[in-house]
Amino acid sequence: MSYTDWETVYAGGGDEQRTKTTTTTNLRTTVVTRCTFERTTLLNGYTSDGAQTCTEISSATTELDPTLTTETETRAGDNPVVTTVALDDVVTTETEQTDPYTVTTYVDAENTTTETEEGSATTNTANRDVTTTTDHGDNTSTVTVIRYVDTTTTTPTTTRTYRTRHYTDVVKKDTRTITTTTPVNRVTYKDGTTEDINGSSTVTTGEWTTVQVSQSQRSENILQSEQTTDVVVTTSDAGTQLSSQSVSNAYTDNDINLGTPTENMSTVVADHKTAEYNSNSG
């Protein structure tokens, strides 16, 4: 028998194989013999042979092609790395972003607007008597009393002053890139297989940048001041005459029918009380 050299099995993880060949010799022997026997012929024409006696005359041996049998033997072995080649780095880039957020700015209008709102009015009535004296010039006058009904309506009125504020809402979000760089080496093993092995990755983070997603405008009125005042309106009816009477006019120092006043007259009452007055007054 014979053996081939041990060889590494491809993708066998280091196993080795060899072929075992077994050779078997084949011989052919040729023998020449001579046999004799008696044959009897019967009356009916049939024959009968007796026992044979054989004698070897010659013998020859010839060698034929041998028979070859092969089988594969396997054994465990080492599978070391035989070559290492650096490949291009694997670079992946992803974008990180924040949730959207809103930045609001505003500008107030230069002018203001006012709004007036009337509340529930209340109504009160009151009688008002007016006395009128008409002098007839003959020391008599006519006194007339007229009653008027005054109706007073009070309405609370609220005045509000507004200034319009114009808003601008800008929706933004912040983004940045994250780059991961991974070195890759391709190793070849003894069995002919290859493997790509990643090295330690390096992560590079970019700076945050702000991008605008959308923009919208809106406005609202901002209350600047509020003042409530009562608006009072009073109306009167035509009036109803309650009485009318003629009266004599009372004398006064200025009465036209009086004479000339005494000069330097004392205004002290006691100076004018005589004994007669005192005795009568008790």
Q: Tell me the major beta sheet.
A: 7 strands, antiparallel
Please tell me what the overall shape is. Answer: rod-shaped
Poorly predicted sequence stretches spanning 5 or more consecutive residues: none
Radius of gyration from the alpha-carbon trace, in angstroms: 74 Å
What does this 3D model show about the protein?
- By secondary structure, this protein is mainly beta.
- It has 1 helix and 16 strands.
- The strands form 4 sheets. Strands 8, 9, 10, 11, 14, 15 and 16 form a 7-stranded antiparallel β-sheet that branches. Strands 1, 2, 3 and 6 form a 4-stranded antiparallel β-sheet that branches.
- β10 and β11 form a beta hairpin.
Which terms summarize this structure?
single chain, 282 residues, mainly beta, 2 domains, seven-stranded antiparallel sheet, four-stranded antiparallel sheet, 16 strands
Would you spell out the secondary-structure blueprint of this structure?
Elements: E1 2-3, E2 7-8, E3 16-36, E4 39-41, E5 47-49, E6 53-75, E7 81-86, E8 90-97, E9 101-118, E10 122-135, E11 140-182, E12 184-189, E13 194-198, E14 202-205, E15 209-236, E16 240-248, H1 275-280
Antiparallel strand pairs: 1-3, 2-3, 3-6, 4-5, 7-12, 8-11, 9-11, 10-11, 11-14, 11-15, 11-16, 12-13
Task: Provide a short characterization of the protein structure.
The chain has 282 residues and is an all-beta fold. The protein is built from one helix and 16 strands.
